[in-house]
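## Example record

The block below lists the input lines for one assembly entry, exactly as stored, with component labels intact.
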Amino acid sequence: MTTYDDALALDAADPLAAFRDRFLMYDDPVAYLDGNSLGRPPKATLARINEVLTQEWAGSLIRSWSDGWTELPTEVGDRLGEVLLGATAGQTVIADSTTVNLFKLLHAACGLRPDRTEIVIDDTNFPTDRYLAESIAAQRGMSVRWISPELTTSVTPDLLASVLSEQTAVVLINQVDYRSGAMIDVNALTAQIHEVGALVIWDLCHSVGVVSLNLDRDEVDFAVGCTYKYVNGGPGAPAFMYVAKRHLAAAEQPITGWWSAQDMFAMASTYLPATSIRRMLSGTANVLGIVAVDEGVKLIAEAGLDAIRVKSIALTEFTIKLVDEWHVPIEVVTPRDAAKRGSHVTIRLPHARRITDDLIARGLVPDFRNPDMIRFGLSPLTTSFAEVWNTYDLARAMTFEQ
Amino acid sequence: MTTYDDALALDAADPLAAFRDRFLMYDDPVAYLDGNSLGRPPKATLARINEVLTQEWAGSLIRSWSDGWTELPTEVGDRLGEVLLGATAGQTVIADSTTVNLFKLLHAACGLRPDRTEIVIDDTNFPTDRYLAESIAAQRGMSVRWISPELTTSVTPDLLASVLSEQTAVVLINQVDYRSGAMIDVNALTAQIHEVGALVIWDLCHSVGVVSLNLDRDEVDFAVGCTYKYVNGGPGAPAFMYVAKRHLAAAEQPITGWWSAQDMFAMASTYLPATSIRRMLSGTANVLGIVAVDEGVKLIAEAGLDAIRVKSIALTEFTIKLVDEWHVPIEVVTPRDAAKRGSHVTIRLPHARRITDDLIARGLVPDFRNPDMIRFGLSPLTTSFAEVWNTYDLARAMTFEQ
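Predicted structure tokens for the full assembly:
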């Protein structure tokens, strides 16, 4: 049986353990396994936001827009692209929310395939993605072609093959499933989608900051994701958007604002979109949000995404091992093959809702997912093996109490 | 001739003078007359953001979403609506940017008048408004009907009468013109637009926080505006959106996300929009941005919007008086009738660009507007009469130097 001392030994040997001190943490919660919903705040983020408030805003006031703020969406976008996405400069921006960005990308993608009639998406996808696919299909006179994957495997090449055709305009896929954690091979599926002349949008909400990505190498068309999970950008931090360079000249998004115009300060009488990735912007940049994303990205760059992935795998392995020792039959929904999962582990068990609530009431915070799943989010820069052990230990005791 | 001592006397008699201490200010800039581009930071905002960072984010983590964050868009929206818009609860939200919100409102308004073919807008309107009117008309197979007002008067009843018809779906108007400061009577124009069965969207970017508004009383349909000018919400703070209660059941916006769904946590397979104002939301709320808006609104509530309007008029009167004493013929673009202007004064003069740049280089910050205008933004909670006098005095000296 794995013991608490085993967990402590793993923490002692963890090369990323020191990064916990770079975040503001208190004794409560005792264990936080929900960094895949909202990551913890880096201390550097608090310092940077205070600098923006007291120096850039209070001190320089309007002059800060020309002293750097105007470039923040692309400057931080480039950094996030390079460190986290495998994207060279000029293809990534930080702006708006995942929902708004996905709306723009779906319209842009469909606009690039004007003679095609179908948007392909899976019915296990996150609600926003499904809702948008349906409403945009309706807005454009197209239809949604649904696929119905198993939660444990998510979208497979076979499933895709059963729906892809010359009618497919775009496929929208979550790379890491938000419930099961099942992870999909970006390279293979992108190639399969391109074979029929369709485009792909990868939703990277549960991948970015914890999984290695090579969007340029894999010839991805579009990608989107949030920054408040493993990037630790804070509650409601702005999302990112990736548009491959080859699509920039023709990609049209419908929310045309002064920030997407070719010369935003010319206040021109006719709208001409910027020729750069700025054409994907709309309104005024959320400065506080973008600098928070910047600090999150810098911290990941310092730790190294490869080292983060190594610890992520160790944490998920450890969690699955503990669940297997539970001595009550608990279904592990997450793939047991480390190459096929992201950084959370989801189990299915009776009374999952009540157990989650009881754990949270005692200061150990996992995440409940309808109808009967508990999700353990493992954020390599902040999650310790001891936190995982403590949560498992109490959860197990609760199942015996029933 | 008005002297610097006259300015000091006005400051000494100003009942709102003490509010300057509620903002974080330094000796540089010497004079800041651009609070209508970016307001100054309230000290309370800095404290509130730090509380959110260190307590709600770092301390409560994900639990803060159920402890109040989820309600922030409507809670702060209600407060802004009550204090600044004359709107009862349930009709205002804080979300996204002005551009994104205007995109939603234009689609919602056109959707409520499906048999009508025209969007009416003036060609002096802010670029985002014009660009969106054009792109949404194109998206919906409609056309834009332009009106061309004089800068000094903005949209008039006569101009409107010349284009309104049974084809008009919606009219989009800036209540205070961003260049001239000309202010329009919401009540009269709303009634005129309703007479032909059309709807109105008021863009309140240059009104909110400094002009009295009565959206409910005036039977306004929709309104939108930013919060980083007179509301002092900070760079890129989220915007607000007002939808009259009578339209809530039928108003449909296209960016359908999990935050606009009837039960956002049910993750339902079919999208059903919320029946409340939440149907206008899309993605995750920008927490830091919304609490900053909240503190800005609270400060205005404390000072009183009526007192703010009184000082605003005094500041604009004082500015116009100084310009009249310039002894070089300077055109005042802003209406001389206080009832017909907002809170900035715009003048037209030779070398406006160079004079603005020189002023800014010497720490006095007005705003340049193409092609030959200088705009003096007068923010009653933070602008002193001495700041106005100093800026005028140096600008006048510069015109003599030419």
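Residues 305-324 of chain B form the longest helix (20 residues). Chain B touches chain A through 81 residues (CB under 8 Å).
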